[in-house]
Amino acid sequence: MPRQGAIVAVLAIAGLCSSFMFTLMVPIQSKLPELLDASREDTAWVVTSTLLAAAVITPISGRLGDMYGKRRILLVLVAVMVVGSVIAAFSPGIVGIIVGRTLQGAIVGVVPLGISIMRDVLHEDRVDSAIAFMSATLGVGGALGLPISAVVTERSDWHVLFWLAAGLGVVVFGLVVWVVPVSVLRTAGRFDFIGAAGLAVGLVGVLLAISRGNEWGWTSPAVLVSGLGGVVVLLLWGWFELRIPEPLLDLRVAARPAVLLTNIASVAMGFSLFASNVVYPQMLELPVATGAGFGLSLLAASLVVMPSGIVMMLLSPIAGRIAQRTGPKLLLLLGAVSLIVAYGFTLLFSSEVWHLVVANILIGAGIGFGYASMPMLIMRSVPQSETGASNGLNALFRSLGTSTAAAVIGAVLASYAIDFEGVPVPTSTGFTVSLILGGAAAIIALVIALFIPSRRAPEERHPSLPE
C-alpha cells in the first residue's frame, strides 16, 4: 500500500491538470479568429465545447466510478484528455481544435472522482485535510496555469500548449497507475444508459442557452428552444430517474436537505468565483486611457491574480483542521464571508494594483474554504457507495454557477461598454455592477449555508463488489 501522502499528492496533481485545461486558451482567446481564420462566433466554441463536455461527463463519470472502479474511470478520463490534446496539437483548423477541446473537457471529472477515492482509501483522520488540498487545486491550477500559458504563447507556437497538456496528462496517468491503489468498494447494478443520455441532452440544452445567450440573443429562437427544451428534458429525466430501481443519480439522496442546500450554495459560490475570474483580469489588462484599466500585460496581470491560488493551497491544511474540529459548514460560512469582503473591498478601493492583489488574496481564501467544504458536506450526507455520483453532481452545480456567471457578467460588461480605438471595452460602471453581482452571489451562498444541517447522516450498508 503506497504512503497516504503520496496518494494525496498524485490526486492533487491530477486536479491541477484539470483546472489547467480551463486556463489553457485564455492567453489566445481574443486572437483565435485570426489564428484559426474563423468568425468570433465560431471560435467561441473552443471554450463552449469544453464547458459542455465537462458538465455532461462529470456526473456520469462519477456514477461509472461508483460501479466499475473510481481509479479505472479516472484513468479513462485522463486518457481521453491526452487524446484530445494530441488531436488539437495536430489540428491547424477550427474543427480539430473544437474536437480536441471537447475531449479535454473530460479531465474535469477527475476532481470529484479523486475526492471519492480519498474517502475510500485514506485513514479517516486524513480525509478532511486531503479533500481541502484536492479542492484547492481547482484554483491553484488556474492561477499557475495562466502565467505558464502566457509565457508559452508569447515565446512559441500556440499549439505547444496542447503538447504541454498532453505531456502533463501522460505524467498523471503514469503516477495514478503507480501510486493510487485500486478501491474495492463497488455499487452493484446496471448502468442507466437512458438516464445518462437524458441528462446529457438536458444539460447541453440548458448550458448552451446560458453560454451563448449573449451572442445569439436571449429571446432568439435558438436560445429559447435550447434552454426551454433542456429544462423539459431534465424534468422528464427526473421523473424517469425516480421510477427506476437503478437510476443514474439517486435523486432521493440528492434531495436530502444537506445535499440539496450544499448544491444550491455551490451554484452561488461558482458564480461568485467566476465573476472574479472575468472582472479582475480585464480591469488589470485594459489600457489606462480607457479610464477603467491598469494597462498591464497578460503575464503581469496573471501574476497579480496568482496569489489567490497560492492562498488556496496554503489554507488547505487549516481548512482540514477546521472541518475536523467544527465540521465543514463553518468552512462554507467563512468562504462566503471572505468573498463578500473581497468584493466589498474592491468596490471601495480599486485605484491601485495592490488593491486588486489584496482582493485576490481574499478571493483565494473564500474559494479555498468554500470549495473545500462542499465535498465534505456531501460525503457526510450520502452513503459511501454514492460518493462518486454525488460529488459529480456537486461539481455540475458549481459548473452551472460558473456558466451563468460567464453569461451574466459578459452581458453586463457588454451593455456598459464604450468604443476605444474601434473596439468596445467595458467601463468602470460595468465593472462596478459586475462586482456587486459577484458579492450578491456570495451573500446568497452565506444565507443558504446558514440553513445546511450540521448533523452527519447515518451510514447505510450498500452492496459492493471486488475490483
UniProtKB/TrEMBL annotation:
InterPro entries: MFS, MFS_dom, MFS_trans_sf
Record keywords, A-Z: Membrane, Transmembrane, Transmembrane helix, Transport
Subcellular location as annotated: Cell membrane
Gene3D superfamilies to which the protein is assigned, alphabetical: MFS general substrate transporter like domains (1.20.1250.20)
Main localization of the protein described in the UniProt heading: membrane
Segments passing through the bilayer: 7-28, 43-61, 73-91, 97-118, 130-152, 158-179, 191-210, 216-237, 258-280, 292-318, 330-348, 354-374, 395-418, 430-452
Membrane topology: Multi-pass membrane protein
Domain of life, per lineage: Bacteria
Domain Major facilitator superfamily (MFS) profile: from-to ranges: 7-456
A Pfam family annotated for this UniProt entry: MFS_1
Record keyword NADP present: no
Protein known as: MFS transporter
